[in-house]
Design brief:
By secondary structure, the protein is mainly alpha-helical. The protein folds into three domains: 92 residues, no CATH class; 59 residues, Orthogonal Bundle (Helix Hairpins), CATH 1.10.287.990; 108 residues, Iron/manganese superoxide dismutase, C-terminal domain (minor pseudopilin epsh fold, 3-Layer(bab) Sandwich). The protein contains eleven helices and five strands; from the N terminus they run αββαααααααβββααα. The chain starts with a helix and ends in a 10-residue tail after the last helix. The chain has a three-stranded antiparallel beta sheet with strand order 4-3-5. The chain is globular. The structure holds fe (ii) ion.
Amino acid sequence: MFASRNEWNSAISAKAVGAWRRRVPSCASPGRFPTPKKGRCAARSPEGNPKAGNERALFPASGKERVMSWLVTRRECLGSVGGLMTLAAFLTTARAWAGSAEPGPPKGALPQLSLEPLPYPVTALEPFLDARTLEIHHGKHHAGYVAKWNQTLEKLSQKRVREETSDLIPLYQSLSFNGCGHVLHDLYWKSMQPAVGEVPAGQIAKALEEDFGGYRRFLEEFEAVTVPIEGSGWGILAYTPLADRLTIMPCEKHQNIALWDSTPLVVCDVWEHAYYLSYQNRRGDYVKEFLRHIPWKQVEQRYVRARAAASGQKSPGLT
Ligand SMILES: [Fe+2]
């Protein structure tokens, strides 16, 4: 009967507005407008100047008001055969929506994500990482985070359409976990390259020298922090505008232990799915080999962009 939710809303609103107009007085004065209270007019608020004839602007619809509008409309509908057909259409459509996965209007919604292809063939990192590991890691694990992010957004959108505030925490926890999972994996693929042994140069080399005491010291700290991460997590080299410095974060899962304003530059996935086919329980060997495959020229470009973007954002508490 109705092709979309918007079409139904338009139909039901037109009838509700028509009924309302027949019940309220005509307020001829430009400084006054009709209210839902029978026979009353009210002055326009100083800050508000709603459009004439736009009842939604005059009376932002609360849940109770929408129910009342629907009841008024239902009485009108019951007064005619056309009305009965409209009511039947409503019930049919409502039943369809109840069982539908249609997300509804994206009211301020976060965007859906899509999975980008790997920046190299799945065999490109062998023997460091085998092709099967990359296929499963990218095609199953990373794809799973993207899919769950999108599914969570649909559930959140449905909650907003129904104006429900119950059980929102699991949805936002899911967005945090799966969103961080996607961001980190996207950067993980770019934190490795087939070539071995590139060393930092230029601004990133200077930053490693100033912020860690040199490239060798950075390698030692990164390995010492990343290998023993409890359970599943990430070793992260990040730039933090807080102090205009590089730092290391031993992230657990995808979202725990972070310095909030930081920009990740290099991320090493130490979930077992990242290395177990090639290295089994030898996480240390995997991390050592990972550090030999970092594309430092690209890392320097990320560092320069992050620093420029954060220019002027240092904490006012710093001296
Ligand atoms: Fe992973």
